[in-house]
Specification:
Blueprint lengths: L1 E6 L3 H10 L7 E7 L2 H10 L4 E5 L7 H11 L4 E6 L4 H9 L4 E4 L5 H49 L5 H10 L8 E9 L2 H8 L2 H15 L7 E6 L2 E8 L7 H20 L3 E5 L6 H12 L2 H4 L7 E3 L10 H6 L1 H13 L6 H15 L3 H21 L9 H9 L4 H25 L3 H12 L7 H8 L3 H12 L3 H19 L4 H7 L5 H12 L3 H10 L1
Parallel strand pairs: 1-2, 1-3, 3-4, 4-5, 9-10
Antiparallel strand pairs: 6-8, 6-9, 7-8
Helix pairs in contact: 2-3, 8-9, 13-15, 14-17, 15-16, 18-19, 21-23
């Protein structure tokens, strides 16, 4: 709907127009009715008005002065003048102001006002269509140029540089002139890309928002060139002049801080930057850009909303073997938080292992695989506890974990995941057809290191062994001893995979006094003797 404002110091005229015209039916919204032109001017300067219907002769300022003032705010304002016969000289001035319609109050009625409003709506609709076409064309041109710039900066980084002169010609199209002055490259990237992507609902909108905010802030810095590189990533080339009185670095850092502030304020995006050193040679520029792009693994440990110098980035990573050596302990603690439904233990568990990872700076890919293996193990355990069905596929979970771009994002994600996992574990227990069965399974799981008997489990549950035996078989489809053996063999597989303990030690850890008997059970369950199984998993 289009907005309409009526101004007339004649109160009966205002009442007539306000109450007799079917504004909404005609496609209008009446946003203001004013007897004072000064009040109308103040309101019009604060709120967009599409159509102004105004008397001419009024105290304070007349109708033509009101139109002129509001046109300074919005040149597209449509104006309708109401006048009497003796105000013809005003009518002549109205023509000069391109007033849309001129209505004599003596002949004014619902019919001719309605006809005027219909004609104005047709004009407004036509202008809207034209503006939409213009905006669409402008957007297409902008997108094409943005795509060309992205292709250019990517090829600069990823493709061999055979002809520096040819590169300079293409760079000149984007305002880069290394023959005139040096440039200082800056690589910017959004923190928590996964979170931002889900909030913006589409990658295109996320990227457009970043680009739009950066372009708006750089509108007065024509010599700074912006390139989009990848999702949530940009490249900025700042001009760098050799004159001593020009403080290039200070001005650049001030601009980057302003960008961080605006992106946080208007889009809730935390942004970090890596700054290079001034260069006038394209090959030196290419070298810095490659190092900035390839610093993704290093960025995993960098603080959010930071501005870091490329030359100061800490390279090198800790020994992944040390991370694997802690897997069994971390897994036990992870399971304890989930299966014992200890929500109060989430923060301490996550903080402990995040601090360990941060201190040792393991390779991000190794960290993510380590974490994913723990999560998948717990999911399998939940599935084994009766008819648990996950709401997420393993493929989606794998994607989510590997999309985590920083240790801070991983920390927040893991805390949220553990909250969900605890809810899922509780749901398994609540939705079971028989609480006793789940308590029995929990008892078995917590006593895999002992010789578990049906009588022990029944005593724990205060049930008769015969009743528990029948109930367990009916609810799970396998008898109690089969279930105990299966759980012990699953635990044995895990210990063979993630520890260096001997078969005899593992047999003893699972409550088997006879190593040979343990070996026969393991082969019956897996098709391999224990050492052959370990050799197969290590080989893969």
């Amino acid at each position: 709907m289009y907005t309409v404002m009526i101004v007339d110091d004649d109160i009966p005229v205002l009442e007539f127009l306000k109450t007799t015209i079917k504004w909404e039916t005609l496609g209008y919204q009446l946003t203001g009715v004013y007897a004072s032109p000064l009040d109308a001017l103040k309101a019009g300067q604060q709120t967009k008005t599409d159509v102004l219907i105004s008397d001419i002769g009024m105290p304070g300022i007349n109708g033509l002065e009101l139109i002129k003032s509001l046109r300074e705010e919005d040149p597209h304002l449509k104006a309708v003048i109401l006048s009497c016969h003796d105000e013809f000289h005003y009518a002549q001035a109205a023509v000069k102001l391109s007033v849309s319609e001129y209505i004599l109050k003596e002949t004014m009625n619902v019919s001719n006002i309605t006809e005027v409003l219909i004609r104005l709506k047709e004009q407004l609709d036509a202008e809207d269509r034209q503006q939409s076409k213009s905006r669409k064309l402008e957007k297409e041109v902008s997108q094409q140029r943005s795509a060309s710039k992205r292709q250019f900066i990517r090829s600069t980084v990823n493709e061999p540089l055979f002809d520096a002169a040819e590169w300079s010609t293409k760079a000149g199209d984007f305002g880069i002139q290394l023959n005139k002055h040096a440039v200082l490259p800056v690589f910017g990237y959004a923190n928590r890309v996964k979170e931002a992507n889900s909030r913006f609902q589409s990658t295109d909108l996320f990227e457009y928002t970043i680009q739009n905010i950066v372009e708006e802030l750089l509108v007065d810095q024509k010599e700074v060139t912006l390139f989009t590189y990848d999702t949530g990533e940009i490249v900025l080339l700042f001009p760098h002049f050799s004159e001593l009185h020009v403080n290039n670095s200070q001005k650049m850092e001030q601009t980057l801080r302003q960008l961080q502030s605006c992106l946080q304020k208007y889009a809730k995006i935390s942004f970090s930057f890596i700054t290079g050193t001034p260069v006038k040679d394209v090959r030196l520029l290419k070298d810095q850009l490659i190092r900035m792009v390839e610093a993704k693994a290093i960025r995993f440990y960098m603080p959010e909303s930071s501005i870091s110098k490329l030359e100061h980035l800490r390279e090198g990573f800790g020994d992944g073997g040390e991370l694997l050596a802690q897997y069994a302990q971390a897994l036990d603690e992870f399971r304890s938080v989930v299966f014992d439904e200890r929500a109060e233990g989430i923060d301490s568990f996550v903080s402990k292992w995040v601090d360990f990872i941060q201190y040792n700076r393991f390779r991000p890919l190794e960290v993510k695989d380590w974490l994913l293996k723990m999560i998948l193990d717990v999911r399998m355990r939940l599935k084994s506890l009766q008819h648990y069905q996950s709401t997420f596929s393993s493929e989606l979970l794998h994607h989510d974990v590997h999309e985590l771009s920083s240790i801070r994002e991983m920390e927040l994600w893991l805390k949220d995941y553990l909250q969900q996992a605890i809810q899922w574990a509780g749901q398994v227990y609540r939705e079971s057809h028989n609480r006793e069965i789940l308590e029995c399974q929990r008892f078995v799981y917590n006593h895999l290191d002992t010789k578990i008997s049906l009588e022990d489990a029944a005593a724990h549950l205060h049930l008769h062994p015969s009743y528990l035996s029948r109930l367990f078989k009916r609810e799970t489809g396998e008898n109690f001893i089969e279930y105990v053996t299966r759980m012990k063999m699953e635990k044995a597989k895990e210990l063979l995979e993630i520890t260096d303990k001997s078969v005899e030690q593992i047999s003893d850890m699972l409550g088997y006094e006879n190593k040979n008997y343990f070996g026969k059970l393991f082969k019956a369950h897996t098709g391999f003797v224990p050492n052959a199984y370990r050799g197969q998993t290590k080989g893969s």
